[in-house]
C-alpha cells in the first residue's frame, strides 16, 4: 500500500517551474506510505513521478519505487497488492526474466515487458492503482483494479497537454494551475447518493479513473478503455451443490492469497456472515490465533441498539478462539473528527461510519497491525440486503392489475401504521419501470430531485438529471435477467467501488493500515454474480447459499440471526453533540452561492426533525467546502 502521484506534460517547462511541488506531494501523501519515498523527474520527457511507500512485502530497499527494469525502459508507481505474484513470478522466470527483488511490484514491470499492458491486466489478481511509464514509446498507462479497491484520480489540461494523477485529490490540487471549483454534476451526485460515483468527483475537471478501466496517454490526448466487466450476470445454470462448492473453494483460495505478508495482520469482525466466514477461514489457515477487531458506540442508555453487531462479534470471536478487541467510539470531539475525516476523504462523503472506521483504524495500527482483512462485498454478491428481497416482492405486486394497485394505494394513503406505510411504498415502487435510474435511486436517494431543486440555487440546477443518467449508463453495460440481479450489480459497481471501498481505503490509509477484501477477489465476483439471484436467497432469507456453503464453519448465532447492519448513532450526534455548530455550517452554505437562504431555513426547521442523515450530509458538504474551496492552501497540520 502506498501513495502515488505524477505529471506527464508536453509543456516541459512546467516540470522545471514547479519542482517544489514534488516535495509538497510527498508531504501530503506521507500518511499512505510512511516507510519510504521516491521521486523521479525527467524534464526532457516532461515526466515527474512521486511515491510514498508502506512496506508490506519485501521490506528491503529493493522494493523502492519508482521501480525501473534493469535497462531503464519501463518504470512503475504501484499502490496495492498482487495476490498471484508468486505464480506470475515463476512464469516470468521460466521465460528467462531475472528478478532483483521479492516484491510484487517487479512482477508488474517485467510482466508488462512480457505480455504488454492488456496481457498484464488479464493475468494479475489483486487490488491496485498503478502508473506505468514506457520510456521507449514515451507512453504512460494508468490502471485501476476491477472492483475499485484502490483510488486513482486524474486531471487533464488540453491547452498544455498536461496529465496529472494521484492516489488522493489533494496531491493534484497542490499544482498551482489547477483551479478549485465545484462540479455541478458532482454536487448533484453527492446530494443524491451521499457519495460521488466514478468517473466524477466534486471538483470540476478532476476525475476518478473508473474501476476496471485503463488510461493511455502518449502525448496527444488521453484515451480511456474498459478492460474488465461482468459478462455472465445471473446466467450460470448448475445445482445448489455445484454453486456451493464453487463459492467455498474460491473463498478459501482468496483468503489464503491475502494472508501473504511480511508484517502482522488481523481482521475486522462484525459478527455478520461475511466477516465471520473470513475470520473462520483465517483461523483454519493460520497456526496463530487471529487478531480480530470491532467497534461499538457509547451513547449512554441508548447504546444497545447500536451495538448488536459488536455483541455478536464477541460470540464469534470466542467460537474461533481469536484474540479479540472491541474499540468503543464515544460521543466526544465529533466535529473535530469530522474535519479530520473529510480532509482525508478529499470529497464530501455522507456515511457517518467514516468516524468509527477512522478511529478503529488508528487503534488497530497502534496495536502493531499493518494489514487487516475485511468481509466487504459479501452482501452485494450473495443477496445480503433486505431491499433485494423487497424488490422481488415488489415485482410480484407489479403483476397485479393496475386498478387494484390504484385502489390499494388510495386506501393506504389514509391509513396509519408503520407496516402499512411500508406496503404503500412498495405499491409506489410497483408503478416504476425497473431497470431505470429513477428505479434504482428510489432505493437510495438522500435528497430526491425535487428536494435538490428546492435546496440548490438556480444557477446549479442544470445538472439535476446527472444521477439518473449515470445509473442509466451503468445499466446499459450489462444484460440482467432479473431486476434483483441488476440491483446487486449496480450496488457492486457504484456503492462498493466508490462508497464502501473509498471510505475504507481513505480512513484506513490515513493511518497506513492496508485492508484486503477476499470477497472482492475478481474470480469470486465473477462466479457469484453469475449465480442467479433466486439461487442465492430463500423467499424470506438473505444469503441462504453462502450460509449453507459454510454451515460447518459458522457458529449458530451467525447462521440464524437476522442481518442488523453497521450504522452510527447519527441522530444523537446531530441532536446532542454538534447541533449548534451544524446550524452555523448549514447557514454558511447559503453564503457560498450553492444553497438558497430559503432552502437553508426550510432545512433547519423541517429536515432536522425527521431526516438527521440529511442534516449530516449538509454539514459534511459545508466542512468540505471550507477546507478545500475557501482555503487557499491545504493545511495538513490544521486538519
Considering the chains and any ligands shown, give keywords for the structure.
6-stranded antiparallel beta sheet, alpha+beta, 27 helices, 639 residues, 46% helix
Topology:
Elements: E1 2-9, H1 13-17, H2 20-28, E2 36-42, E3 47-53, E4 67-68, E5 74-82, H3 85-94, H4 105-123, E6 126-134, E7 139-144, E8 153-157, E9 162-166, H5 170-173, H6 184-193, E10 206-208, E11 213-217, E12 223-226, H7 240-257, E13 265-268, H8 273-285, E14 291-298, H9 308-319, E15 323-330, H10 334-345, H11 353-366, E16 371-373, H12 378-382, H13 386-398, H14 402-412, H15 418-430, H16 437-441, H17 449-455, H18 466-475, H19 483-509, E17 514-516, H20 522-530, H21 533-536, H22 544-549, H23 556-560, H24 570-577, H25 579-591, H26 597-610, H27 612-630
Helix pairs in contact: 3-4, 7-8, 7-20, 10-27, 11-19, 13-15, 13-19, 14-15, 24-27, 25-26, 25-27
Strand order of the largest sheet: 2-3-1-9-8-10
Q: Helix count?
A: 27
Q: What's the Cα radius of gyration? A: 24 Å
- Helical amount among residues, as a percent range? 40-55%
| Average pLDDT rating | 89
Biggest beta sheet summary: 6 strands, antiparallel
Q: Distance between termini?
A: 23 Å
Using the alpha-carbon principal axes, give the shape: globular
Q: Which percent band covers the strand fraction?
A: 15-25%
Task: Identify low-pLDDT runs.
Answer: none
Structural class: alpha+beta
Number of strands: 17
Amino acid at each position: 500500500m502506498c501513495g502515488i502521484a505524477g505529471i506527464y506534460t508536453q509543456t516541459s517547462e512546467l516540470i522545471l517551474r514547479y519542482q517544489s511541488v514534488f516535495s509538497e506531494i510527498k508531504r501530503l501523501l506521507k500518511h499512505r506510505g510512511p516507510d519510504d519515498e521516491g521521486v523521479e523527474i525527467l524534464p526532457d520527457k516532461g515526466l515527474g513521478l512521486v511515491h510514498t511507500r508502506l512496506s508490506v512485502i519485501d521490506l528491503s530497499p529493493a522494493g523502492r519505487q519508482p521501480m525501473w527494469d534493469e535497462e531503464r525502459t519501463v518504470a512503475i508507481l504501484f499502490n496495492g497488492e498482487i495476490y498471484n505474484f508468486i505464480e506470475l513470478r515463476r512464469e516470468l522466470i521460466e521465460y528467462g526474466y531475472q528478478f532483483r527483488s521479492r516484491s510484487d511490484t517487479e512482477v508488474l514491470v517485467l510482466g508488462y515487458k512480457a505480455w504488454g499492458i492488456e496481457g498484464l491486466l488479464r493475468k494479475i489478481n489483486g487490488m491496485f492503482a498503478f502508473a506505468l511509464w514506457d520510456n521507449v514509446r514515451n507512453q504512460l498507462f494508468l490502471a485501476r483494479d476491477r472492483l475499485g479497491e484502490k483510488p486513482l484520480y486524474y486531471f487533464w489540461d488540453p491547452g498544455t497537454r498536461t496529465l496529472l494523477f494521484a492516489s488522493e485529490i489533494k496531491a493534484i490540487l497542490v499544482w498551482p494551475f489547477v483551479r478549485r471549483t465545484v462540479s455541478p454534476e458532482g454536487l448533484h451526485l453527492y446530494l443524491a447518493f451521499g457519495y460521488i460515483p466514478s468517473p466524477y468527483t466534486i471538483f470540476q475537471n478532476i476525475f476518478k479513473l473508473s474501476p476496471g478501466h485503463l488510461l493511455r496517454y502518449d502525448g496527444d490526448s488521453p484515451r480511456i478503455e474498459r478492460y474488465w466487466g461482468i459478462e455472465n450476470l445471473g446466467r450460470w445454470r448448475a445445482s445448489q451443490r455445484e454453486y456451493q462448492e464453487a463459492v467455498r473453494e474460491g473463498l478459501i483460495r482468496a483468503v489464503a492469497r491475502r494472508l501473504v505478508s511480511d508484517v502482522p495482520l488481523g481482521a475486522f469482525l462484525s459478527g455478520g456472515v461475511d466477516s465471520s466466514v473470513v475470520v473462520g477461514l483465517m483461523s483454519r489457515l493460520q497456526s496463530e490465533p487471529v487478531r480480530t477487531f470491532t467497534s461499538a458506540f457509547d451513547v449512554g442508555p441508548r447504546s444497545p441498539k447500536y451495538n448488536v453487531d459488536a455483541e455478536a462479534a464477541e460470540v464469534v470471536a470466542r467460537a474461533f478462539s481469536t484474540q479479540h478487541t472491541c474499540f468503543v467510539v464515544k460521543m466526544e470531539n465529533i466535529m473535530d473528527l469530522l474535519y479530520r475525516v473529510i480532509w482525508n476523504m478529499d470529497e464530501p462523503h455522507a456515511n457517518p461510519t467514516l468516524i468509527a472506521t477512522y478511529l478503529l483504524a488508528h487503534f488497530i495500527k497502534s496495536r502493531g497491525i499493518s494489514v487487516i482483512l475485511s468481509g466487504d462485498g459479501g452482501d452485494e454478491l450473495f443477496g445480503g440486503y433486505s431491499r433485494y428481497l423487497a424488490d422481488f416482492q415488489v415485482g410480484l405486486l407489479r403483476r397485479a392489475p393496475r386498478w387494484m394497485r390504484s385502489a390499494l394505494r388510495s386506501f393506504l394513503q389514509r391509513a396509519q401504521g408503520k407496516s402499512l406505510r411500508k406496503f404503500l411504498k412498495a405499491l409506489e415502487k410497483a408503478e416504476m419501470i425497473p431497470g431505470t435510474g429513477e428505479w434504482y435511486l428510489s432505493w437510495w436517494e438522500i435528497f430526491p430531485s425535487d428536494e435538490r431543486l428546492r435546496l440548490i440555487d438556480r444557477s446549479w440546477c442544470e445538472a439535476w438529471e446527472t444521477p439518473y443518467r449515470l445509473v442509466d449508463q451503468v445499466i446499459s453495460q450489462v444484460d440482467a435477467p432479473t431486476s434483483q440481479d441488476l440491483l446487486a450489480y449496480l450496488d457492486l459497481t457504484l456503492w462498493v467501488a466508490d462508497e464502501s471501498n473509498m471510505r475504507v481505503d481513505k480512513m484506513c490509509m490515513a493511518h497506513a493500515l492496508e485492508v484486503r477484501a477476499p470477497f472482492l477477489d475478481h474470480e469470486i465476483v465473477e462466479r457469484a454474480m453469475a449465480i442467479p439471484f433466486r439461487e442465492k436467497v430463500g423467499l424470506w432469507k438473505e444469503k441462504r447459499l453462502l450460509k449453507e456453503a459454510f454451515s460447518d464453519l459458522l457458529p449458530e448465532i451467525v447462521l440464524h440471526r437476522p442481518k442488523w447492519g453497521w450504522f452510527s448513532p447519527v441522530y444523537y450526534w446531530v441532536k446532542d453533540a454538534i447541533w449548534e455548530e451544524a446550524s452555523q455550517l448549514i447557514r454558511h452554505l447559503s453564503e457560498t452561492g450553492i444553497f438558497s437562504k430559503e432552502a437553508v431555513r426550510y432545512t433547519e426547521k423541517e429536515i432536522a426533525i425527521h431526516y438527521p442523515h440529511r442534516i449530516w450530509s449538509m454539514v459534511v458538504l459545508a466542512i468540505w467546502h471550507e477546507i478545500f474551496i475557501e482555503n487557499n492552501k491545504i493545511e495538513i497540520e490544521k486538519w
